[in-house]
Design goal:
mainly alpha, 12 helices, 2 domains
Length: 254
């Protein structure tokens, strides 16, 4: 599996998510100067318009997070009018930076809103993955130190999920984009597609499976059930229909 010609196992070992984003957008690895400029641009635009934070309160707290993300992402078009012309290369670039910068902030706010905790604003002194973890799990009542192991794991997860050719959500975004729709609306459409159980819903199913297993001591029993053809239980999150022989992503999941 390749990202713009680069094997993903190589990228997961030797690169980081922001460098991979540069590669996907530009088709080549950045120089150190190009990477520093790219990283600075992303880091300095992680905040979202304060009015957008109030939109969360229009949703029930038990709303599915994908429903909230669809709404909030689409609403970006109502706040950032200077990057909606898809025929303008500069507008496309600005929209790409805004989506890359602000998506972790919005995703973390979705989670915080669902559990009734206050929003945590971005920190420019942290890495992309570290900032996301901090926004997800820090609270005002006690300090939160980003675990470097979890930080690296999150960065690798983002790299491995950065591109998967012409999948359902990519096709949806491109179809919406073919009409001339603005990038924020197109990505909102892609999120709606990702919500489907046959696409991103598989990740949700994997989390539910882990909750069902609940303890290390239960693993042998669930492995036995997974091997039993007469049992309806299936291990979720392992392999992919497009990689029946071997999944290159699995070598870098740890």
């Amino acid at each position: 599996m390749l990202h713009r010609g680069f094997p993903i196992d190589q990228l997961a070992t030797d690169s980081n998510y922001l460098e991979v984003c540069y590669i996907l957008l530009n088709g080549e690895k950045p120089t150190q100067e190009q990477y520093d400029e790219f990283k600075t641009t992303v880091t300095r635009h992680t905040m979202i318009h304060e009015q957008i934070t109030r939109l969360f309160h229009a949703f029930r707290r038990d709303s599915h997070p994908m429903a909230v993300m669809c709404g909030i992402t689409g609403a970006l078009a109502a706040f950032y009018h200077d990057s909606l012309d898809v025929n303008n290369p500069r507008h496309r670039e600005i929209a790409a930076f805004r989506l890359l910068s602000k998506m972790p902030t919005m995703a973390a706010m979705c989670y915080k809103y669902s559990i009734g905790q206050p929003f945590v604003y971005p920190r420019n002194d942290l890495s992309y993955a570290g900032n996301f973890l901090n926004m997800m799990f820090s609270t005002p009542c006690e300090p939160y130190e980003v675990n470097p192991i979890l930080e690296r794991a999150m960065d690798r997860i983002l790299i491995l999920h950065a591109d998967h050719e012409q999948n359902a959500s990519t096709s949806t975004v491109r179809t919406a984009g073919s009409s001339g729709a603005n990038p924020f609306a197109c990505i909102a459409a892609g999120i709606a597609s990702l919500w489907g159980p046959a696409h991103g819903g598989a990740n949700e199913a994997a989390l539910k499976m882990l909750e069902e297993i609940s303890s290390v001591k239960h693993i042998p029993e669930f492995v036995r059930r997974a091997k039993d053809k007469n049992d309806s239980f299936r291990l979720m999150g392992f392999g992919h229909a497009c990689t029946k022989i071997t999944d290159p992503a699995r070598h870098r999941n740890a």
